[in-house]
Structure formats: C-alpha cells, structure tokens
Design goal:
The chain has 257 residues and is mainly alpha-helical. The protein is 67% helix and 0% strand.
Length: 257
C-alpha cells in the first residue's frame, strides 16, 4: 500500500509539477466532461491533504490514465496496477480527514476527543467485518470497483490485514485515552449530588455552587458540553472548567495516567 501511495503521488506530481502538463490535462478533463479539471498536490507537512489528493485522483482516474498514456507509459502502467489500492486508500483517508476535522477547533474538549478516537477505533473492527464478507458499504470507492468484480481476494486480504494493523496501532497510541476515567459530574453536573460523587476536595464547593445556579442549569440545557464549560458567565467556576481543557486533560483521570 505504501508503494501504491508513492505511485499515486508520483502521478500527481508528473501532471501538477509541470505547467504545460497541467494545462494540457485541464483541457483533457474539460473534453471528457469531468467535474474537476485539476489534480491536487499532496503535502507532506499537512497530512490532511493526502486524503483530498487521493480522492481527486480517484475522481479523475480515467482522464489521468489517458493523459499518462501519452506522456509517461511506464507510470501509466504502474498507476493502473495500483488502481484498487488507490481507491481503498482514498476511502480510508477520507475517514481520517473526517475525524481530524471534527477534532479541530479550540472548543473541542478531551471528552469529545476521546469519544471520536475510541469510537473510530471501534469502527475499524466494523469496517473489517464488512470487507470480510465483501460488503463495501463503508468504502464507496471500492464499491464502484466491486460492481465490475474488480476487487480480488488477494486485494481484500491486504486491506483487512491493513485494518488489523491500524486497529492495533490505535490501541497502543491511545491506550491512556481509552483507560481515562471521566468524572460523571463533568458530563452531568446537575444530576449528581456533591456528597455522593467522587469529587476531589478542592472542587466540592464549586460543584455545590454550580448545582444551585439556576442560570447555569438553564445554560446547560441549551449548550453543548464544551460551550457550557467555556462560557464566560458572571459566576465563573474556574477550577471546574479547567478539568475540561485539553491542556489539563489527564487531570480527569489521575489514577490512570
């Protein structure tokens, strides 16, 4: 798969990296009534671009092959050989991009980050089970190939093995995040009595105040968790709010980190 990725990037650079090729390719795309007329560069320092780059190459695959057949026959054949891998990687990176975009922004809490990342880890198992029975509902690009019976058993085995390794990597990389304990009072501050909750001593007074604050209770009903804890209200519960900030994330679970 890594070799296939390199071929795909090489094909894009062959066209995008030369002004004349880029103009001729745009003309060909217009002639072929393509939705787009340009490929997208892959940028090493911005891995999000990789997903966009691959999906655009999938969208313009036939025009790309047609163009390379005239300017670089060897590269054209290499791209044709890794077509299935390209379509799989484009599907996978689109999922990475979706997660990454949802993790962006200063209002994302460690609780939301944990939900997204651990949730995606669980989804990988789901993706594997669907591929194992040749169900491509979660891989729209591969699904188009399967309609033409172009996905071989060998390719399928490669993709399933890749997902297994990815799942293992997620478990190792986010082991601390998965074992992190999020206090109930952070998620539901108005449903838990201070005396019955496992709240550290320095926060107990603030939790009592929060529980009695009608304005805060109304705000909680109409705001997301991150909006509630970051809201600059008249009565600021500074210590409690610090518990939800990504920079202090592990304070949520001192016993597990």
């Amino acid at each position: 798969l890594h070799a296939a990725l390199k071929v795909c990037i090489k094909a894009v650079n062959k066209i995008k990296g030369q002004p004349l090729n880029s103009r001729l390719f745009a003309t060909l795309c217009e002639k072929n009534d393509e939705t787009f007329n340009q490929l997208l560069f892959h940028t090493e320092v911005r891995w999000l671009s990789r997903g966009d780059c691959l999906q655009r190459l999938v969208d313009l695959y036939h025009s790309t092959v047609e163009f390379l057949a005239d300017v670089d026959q060897t590269l054209c054949e290499e791209l044709k050989k890794c077509k299935n891998h390209l379509f799989y990687l484009a599907d996978l990176y689109s999922k990475f991009n979706e997660i990454q975009k949802r993790l962006q922004g200063k209002d994302v809490t460690i609780i939301q980050a944990r939900t997204l990342l651990i949730g995606f880890q669980a989804k990988i198992g789901l993706f594997k089970s669907f591929l194992a029975r040749r169900d491509f509902k979660y891989f729209s690009n591969l699904q188009k190939l399967e309609e033409g019976a172009d996905v071989s058993d060998r390719d399928l085995e490669i993709y399933i093995n890749h997902l297994e390794k990815l799942e293992e990597d997620f478990k190792i990389r986010f082991e601390d995040l998965e074992s992190m304990t999020v206090p109930d009072w952070i998620i539901a501050p108005f449903d838990i009595e201070t005396g019955n909750a496992n709240i550290e001593f320095s926060l107990q007074e603030e939790h009592v105040e929060i529980s009695a604050d009608l304005e805060a209770k109304l705000l909680f009903k109409h705001k997301s968790l991150s909006e509630f804890w970051s809201n600059p209200r008249k009565c600021d519960f500074i210590k409690a709010k610090e518990q939800t900030e990504p920079g202090n994330a592990w304070r949520l679970a001192p016993e597990t980190h």
